[in-house]
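Thread title: Can someone regenerate the structure for this chain?

I was given the following input by a collaborator and told the matching structure tokens would be attached. They weren't. Posting the sequence so someone can regenerate them.
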Amino acid sequence: MGIQLTNTMTRRKEPFVTLEPGKVKMYVCGPTVYNYIHIGNARPAIVFDTLRRYLKYRGYEVTFVQNITDVDDKLIRVANQEGTTVKEVADRYTDAYNEDLRALNVLPPDIQPRVMQTIPEIISFVEGLIEKGYAYESEGDVYFRTGRFQEYGKLSHQPLDDLQAGARVEINEKKEHPLDFALWKSAKEGEVSWNSPWGEGRPGWHIECSAMALKFLGEQIDIHAGGSDLVFPHHENEIAQSECFTGKVFARYWLHNGMLTIDNEKMSKSLGNFLLTRDLVEKFGGQLIRFFMLQGHYRNPINFSEELLEQAANGLERIKTAYTNLSHRLETARDEEPNGQAGEQARILAELRKRFVTEMDDDLNTANAITVIFDVVKEANLYVRHQHVGAKEVRAYMELLVELTDVLGLEIAAEQELVDSEIEALIAERTEARKARNFARSDEIRDLLAAKGIVLEDTPQGVRWRRK
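Best answer:
Regenerated them for you:
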């Protein structure tokens, strides 16, 4: 049947057909970089990185764009609190975000545009909407006329009247209609701003993604994705302004991942369960967090707890152990399959690969795909119980495990463990880097050691380390 994806727009599973055969244009909403990302932010990053990997596995050429929101009220507030610039705050947390994604083995986007780098395109976009009558200027602000877009609400499946009645809309006398949203905001004293036909100001939140998608992917894209919290108003507003500007359907498929709770409660700083991704990576490792996230279907809500994470660790270890056992058996394997099972093992391997593809084709069902991987482990373990095994068959099981786990962004081949002298040398280099205030290198060494399972503890007596 080929790949099927659940489209939020139609609320049903649809065959995946691209605008251009063999090519995928994919846009995923990125973070607002005013702080380190929390574990909920990690879920869409992992989910849609896995979709990208799978599309490439199935032979598609994928252009993957993920934006960075580096102009926002929150960034301005942090910059003012720190006595620094919005750009400095944005640069720092953009670097931190990309560092966190590397730890989760999320591939970098092909293009990572930022708002500050896209101001001319945003202004041009807003001018076009005004010219077409879909937007208006009011005292230095520019608003989109939601009432002019007859399909407004089609993504969230809510009529305009219901949205108006149910929305928490701030009273604003500048607007023609309560649901009209800002495309351009006039500058307040001391805020970062740019010159525009409407005076000094900065972009609204929603317009940035439409302008970036148009600039880097064109008027129409195949996939637009993000967390389900973005369906309304962000993605709804993107659709309205983009389709009014171009006169074309903006995206063919809208994909949204379910939300994440912590011990069955919504994550909140007030509840004390606000978990930063980097803290969890340091404690548990990025691979385990990624594996845990993929054990549930991406559209369903997922509950995060240390107990559930430990259960996931057992599953991931089973896969890694199977690979290690196979590599050991390969050392004494026979050139020819000694049990008369060459044909049968080839059939089993082919069937397992086919089942994996079937599950992933079915709306990126990583949960069932992981079940197939466990079946690969089961069959591999059964085969290596023979007194003698064939090298071709053992190698085929190893290659299949690597092939399928790589699609999920998991690295199961055991890395060479650092010896004590290497660890001590890296710690000494980190200490010197900290003395020289080269914190980037210091953090890089810490992350390298953490990825190798080495935990550092800075104490008054010096740096202590231990293996996880």
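Residues 98 and 108 are 8 Å apart (CA to CA).
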